[in-house]
Each structure stands twice: as C-alpha cells, then as structure tokens.
From TrEMBL:
It holds the Pfam family Cass2. SMART domains: AraC_E_bind. Residues 1-158 form the AraC effector-binding domain. This is AraC effector-binding domain-containing protein. It comes from Marinomonas primoryensis. PANTHER family: TRANSCRIPTIONAL REGULATOR PROTEIN YOBU-RELATED (PTHR36444).
Length: 158
C-alpha cells in the first residue's frame, strides 16, 4: 500500500448503479456482467500503454450506500464494434486527488476480490496494522488493470 497523487483523467465506458449488498448476491450482482458487456462491445488498444479501468463514483454515502461503476479506458485507447460508437458511452472523470494504492497479482477476478478484502480490512481497522492512518473520501475510487493478472486499486483519501 502506498500514497500517491493522481492527475484528473477522463474515462469512457459502460456503467451501472449498484451497492455492496447487491454485489454479494449472485442474482443481483451487476459488476461482473458489466465487465463482460464492455469486453464484447469495446476493444482497448493496450499497445501504447493503455489500461482497463473500473471506476467507482457517485457514492450515496459510504460503503453501505449505492454507487456507480464504470468499466472503460481513455478515449484514445478505445475501438468500438461497428454497431456502437463512442457517443453511446458514459464518461467519468478520475478526480485529481490523493489515493492509497493497494495492489495484487493472481487469477482474475479472484485477485480483485482479494484486494478489495484487504481494503475493507484496512479501513475497518481489522488489518494487522490496526486503526487506519487514512480515512476514505468516498469521491472517486478506481481499479487499474495493469496486466491480465494484476490490478492496482486506488482509494481516494482525505
């Protein structure tokens, strides 16, 4: 885990509104299907260092409330299938802010689930580090997929 400051970046993609309670149940989970829909409709050009992002934003309150999730990439990295165009995609700005970065490597999607488990334990004070040094801002958090088996999760902090 490390603290970083990020510059604002625009991400285009597909989005849904959900909450953690719904994501814990197979019959109401939306994020996995969102990733699948994005991969069917959009191609990300990884050759020039592009990354896939999962952006969490529009928090109703904290981790218990509703939030929006957008799966996407930077506009310059996207190629659409013939039936689609970039105008049909949603856009979200990754806030220029301070973040804590949690990283993981392993089989997808389990590595993402494991990293989020580390995040929840850290901010709840249940990790080996005890009471967290930082507090979540609940503004914009994001996953940045750095390869087929690794992810960095950026959590906005106060």
């Amino acid at each position: 885990m490390k603290e970083v400051t990020c510059e604002e970046m625009q991400i285009l993609g597909l989005s849904v509104r959900t909450n953690n309670a719904d994501e814990m149940k197979v019959e109401t989970a939306k994020i996995g299907a969102l990733h699948g829909a994005f991969q069917q409709q959009v191609t990300v050009n990884y050759e020039n260092g592009a990354h896939l992002f999962g952006v969490y934003y529009g928090y109703e309150s904290d981790h218990t409330g509703d939030f929006s999730v957008l799966v996407g990439s930077e506009e310059s990295a996207l190629t659409m299938t013939p039936a689609e165009n970039k105008a049909s995609l949603d856009t979200v700005a990754l806030c220029a802010d301070k973040y804590l970065v949690f990283s993981g490597t392993g089989e997808m999607p389990q590595v993402v689930i494991d990293v989020w488990g580390d995040i929840w334990r850290y901010f709840s004070g249940e990790s080996s580090q005890g009471k967290p040094k930082y507090q979540r801002a609940f503004t914009t958090d994001f996953e940045r997929y750095t390869s087929a088996n690794s992810v960095d999760v950026y959590i906005a902090i106060l």
